[in-house]
Amino acid sequence: MISREYEFHAPKTLNEALSLLEKSGGNAKLIAGGMSLVPMMTLGLAHPDAVISLNKVPGLDGVKEDGGVLAIGAMTRHHVLKTNPLIAQHAPLLAEAAKYVGDVQVRHRGTLGGVLVHADPAADYLPVCLALGAQIKLQSAKGVRTVEARDFFKDIMTTSIEDGEILVEVRVPKLPAGSGSSYQRLHRVEGNYAIVNAAAVVEPGKKKGRVALGGVGPTPVMIDVSAHIASGVSDDALRRVSDAAFAAAENAYGDLNGDAKYKQAMARVYAQRVVRAAAAQAQ
Amino acid sequence: MKKTIQITVNGKSYSRDADTRQVLADFLRDELRLTGTHIGCGTGSCGACTVVLDGRTVKSCCILAADVDGQEITTIEGISTGAQQLHPIQEAFVEFQGLQCGYCTPGMVLSAMQLLKENPNPSEDEIRHGISGNLCRCTGYHFIVKSIQEAAKRLQASK
Fold first, then answer.
1. What structural domains does chain B harbor?
2. Global pTM?
């Protein structure tokens, strides 16, 4: 039982949800899967005046093709991302990341949108969305705006979403055929958040690529590795990728999993691993 | 604040006023007196509160009761095949000592059921992944895995 009283709403349309959010005046929380929010409320770490559920709002889940883009509803649950054929074909990094989120039960309930707005610095989808060049679609009563994933994350558990806005969709450009991609993470216990995670995309021709890292600072960071791999993915090129990852992880901080230096060192290791794996896959 | 919810639990329909602060596990235990659903950590780590929501296992301590209005739930009380009868997975747990203190067992059995529904003939590794959302503080995992292997065999044979 959650100790503090709050209002609960389960709107049946997006407009109803938006107007409830508008009326609530700031201290309302949207609930998607609730895999982080409910424990935080149980522990007294979050105490909203109102909770507005998106679980009964139709049309916020599912994966659709929209030209060269996959339009993924914010309420799409992890187990769907893990098994959806469109995701497997056009954005396999997302399916790979979904495998690691929580455990079986969490993947049945938790959502993509929920993870992104919660913005835990080591969440699996954060570096993946950066590396894929995803766009985050936000809707408010005033209209719709789209934010690049790389501009969405502002600080630990802080995003550029404004009061009155709902994350409704994640737009992921389809990877061109012949691309390679890899997602890998360092963790000690299955189901835990990663300590450091990394996602790489290498474009067809292996001349251009990027790697995004999570867990090495308050927000995920991205490095363009094109200059390093342009003349071949050699050991020397991978060493330069590692050096760039080490530098990009300068804001790493220590916690129970390891100190800042350790995480910076792991940024080096994982950046190299994912670029090597993505390059091996690319044609 | 109260909210009237209508849910189907183990095939029976209920219409009840739920306190909106109640998580589903509290509602099942305190309102419906279905105390087979256990609460261990209360924060989504241990899996003792696992129930089946619209055909998929979830952790009922991390879902608000008010948020499952109109949905269908199966708890450990709802899986037996008849009065005084155990489900074949439960039978295997009994025979192969898949439980010691029994606290994690309802969640373990439901996770095993989900796994065997999707993958009727899992490897040991797949079983371990299938129950990775359930903790056993007695650390009796070895026998739990054995029980699930045996249950898989029996369910396959009965088809």
1. 2-78 (3.10.20.30), 88-157 (1.10.150.120)
2. 0.96
